[in-house]
Amino acid sequence: MGASSGHEPTVGVLGGMGPLAGATLALRIVELTRATRDQEHISVVLLNDPHVPDRSAAGTAGGQSPLPAMLRGVDTLVHAGVDCIVVPCNTAHLWFDRLQEACPKPILHIVDAVIHDLRRQGVPDGAVIGVLGTPATLQLGLYQDRLVSSGYRPLIPEPAEIQSLLVPAIAAVKANRVEDAHPLVVRAIESLGRRGAQAIVLGCTELPLAVPHARRPALGIVLTDSIDALALQAIEWVGQHAEACGA
Questions:
Q1: Where are the domains of the chain?
Q2: CA–CA distance, 15 with 77 (Å, rounded to integer)
Q3: What is the per-residue pLDDT across 212-247, written as a single tens digit (0 to 9) for each?
Q4: pLDDT tier for residue 8 given thresholds of 50, 70 and 90
Q5: Which helix (H) or strand (E) holds 226?
Q6: Are 67 and 92 in contact (CB under 8 A)?
Q7: Distance, CA of 77 to CA of 103 (rounded, Å)
C-alpha cells in the first residue's frame, strides 16, 4: 500500500457474528494485502462483539432485533476513526440499509463483494450460482435478487438440506468444532453441484471456515468465499480511496 506521513484509510470490522468469522476477516485482510513490510499493510480496527442478538432468529422467528447492538458497534468504529466498515456476517446485511442510513462512513455490502468475486473468477453471465447460508439469508432472498440483477441464476438448497446440513454446520463452527462442520458443508456443495450449480457462494461467514482453502480444489467447482470476497473488496476500497483520505 505504501508508507505515507498522511492519513491512510482505516477499515473497521464490525465482527462477533460469529467471533471466529470476524477474527478471520481481519486476518484475511492482512494475508491478501500485497505488502513487503509492516508499513505497507492496511490499518484495521476490529470490534468483535459476540453479544449481538441472533440475526437468523430475528429475521425468521421474531427474535430480538440485532439492529440496536449493530448500530452501537458502528458508532464505536466511527468514533475510533475508521474510513469504511465491513460486516463479516451475511445475515446481518438484512439490516444493511438501516445501518448505512445511520452511518456517516461507507459500509461495503458483502453480497456486492461476492458478485465482484464471481466476476473476478471468470464466472460468466447466465451461470447457475448455488447459494449456501443461514435460513434467514436464504428464505429472505438476500443473495437471490442481487444475483439476478447481475445476470446470474441463483439456486438454493432444499429446505430439508438447510436444516440437516447448513444449520448444524454453522452451529458447529460457532462452537469451535470446525472439523465437524466440514462433511456437512461438502454434502451441501455436492448437492447443489448435482442440481446444476456452476459456482457456489459460501454465503454465511461460518461456512468458509468449514472448507479450508487447501481442501477446496478437490471439490471441483468454483467457490466464492464471502470472507475473502469482503476482504478483497476492503483492500480494493482502500487502494481507491487512499488519495482522498490524504495518504
A1: 10-109+229-241, 111-226
A2: 11
A3: 999 999 999 999 999 999 999 999 999 998 866 544
A4: confident
A5: helix 226-241
A6: no
A7: 10
DSSP letter (8 states) at residue 9? P
Which tens digits make up the pLDDT trace of 162-171? 999 999 999 9
What are the φ and ψ backbone dihedral angles of 86, each rounded to 5 degrees? Answer: -125, 145
AA letter at 246: G
CATH class of 10-109+229-241: alpha beta
Question: By three-state DSSP, how is residue 214 classified?
Answer: helix
Q: Specify whether the CB–CB gap between 21 and 55 falls below 8 A.
A: no
In the block, cell 505497507 appears at 40
> So what's the pLDDT on residue 37?
97
Q: Which residue has the cell 453441484?
A: 193
Dump pLDDT digits (tens) for 39-55: 999 999 999 999 999 99
What pLDDT, on a 0 to 100 scale, did the predictor assign at position 10? Answer: 97
- Among 28, 211, 62, 47, smallest CA distance to 136 is for 62
> Above 80 in pLDDT, residue 145?
yes
Q: Which residue in 212, 239, 223 sits closest to 8, CA to CA?
A: 239
Provide the CATH topology of domain 111-226.
Answer: Rossmann fold (3.40.50)
10-109+229-241 with 111-226: one CATH topology?
yes
Q: Which residue reads 442481487 in cell numbers?
A: 146
What pLDDT shows up at residue 243?
67
Nearest to 67 by CA among 19, 144, 114, 14: 14
